[in-house]
UniProtKB/TrEMBL annotation:
Superkingdom in the source lineage: Bacteria
UniProt xrefs under Gene3D superfamilies: 3.10.450.50
Protein species of origin: [Pantoea] beijingensis
Protein name listed in UniProt: Oxalurate catabolism protein HpxZ
InterPro entries: AtzH-like, NTF2-like_dom_sf
């Protein structure tokens, strides 16, 4: 891919806004927005720190059962890269107050007719 297709300012701004909208929904437990921003498909995958979720229904079930306290976190080393006009990867580390663990999150975003959606996500923790 030619470098002029990577991180086009308008595309990067769109996906960055979607990423931070997701982050705000995550820490405020806004399940409707979290659901909206994942691709509604059986092929959507979210590999979590303690769970492997395949398909939007499994992701929805996880979200609805997740505790809604202690969700605030601090992001570090966030890197958002867009490729062309409809594909991006968002990677970040995070920490939570009271925990020594460093979390890592990576998301693959695709711009679909309904807007930017997460099609694959991975979350892990390291000591």
């Amino acid at each position: 891919m030619k470098s002029e297709y990577i991180d086009r300012p308008a595309i990067l701004a769109e996906v960055t806004a979607a990423f931070y909208r997701y982050e705000q929904a995550l820490i405020s437990n806004d399940i409707a927005v979290l659901d909206e921003l994942f691709w509604h498909d059986d092929r959507t995958v979210r590999l979590g720190a303690g769970e492997n979720l395949y398909g939007i229904e499994a992701i929805r079930a996880f979200r609805s059962a997740r505790p809604s306290v202690g969700l605030d976190r601090q992001l570090n080393n966030t890197v958002i890269t867009s490729f062309g006009e409809d594909y991006a990867v968002c990677s970040t580390e995070f920490t939570r107050e009271g925990s020594e663990k460093i979390g890592r999150q990576q998301q693959t975003w695709v711009k679909l007719p309904c807007g930017w959606r997460i099609v694959a996500a991975q979350v892990s923790l390291m000591s």
